[in-house]
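Entry 12.
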Amino acid sequence: MTPNFRRPLLAATLVILAGCAARPVAPPPVSTTPESAVQAEARRQQASRPTYNLAGYPPAVREGYIDGCETAKATRYGRKDATRFANDAQYQMGWNDGYGICGKR
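Predicted 3D structure (tokens):
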């Protein structure tokens, strides 16, 4: 191999090896005790909710869709507001649509 190719080859090899030497990211700590409903609600209020492009739909449909979709995906944002589901047709429609669509993926 000629000297003109050795330096770029050595440099590329060092870059690749340096990338392999990066320390892995530690996973978040896992709690051994289940959280209470109050703790879960406080955590949800602090975290940003997932967003979906539901422009043009009423707020109740958007909120129901997000709740239903996140429930189908079994994320920590999944919930079903039983009182609202029973009394708000738009929330119920959004929840059912979100659960049905996201559950198929």
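Annotation: The mean pLDDT is 80. Residues 3-20 form the longest helix (18 residues).
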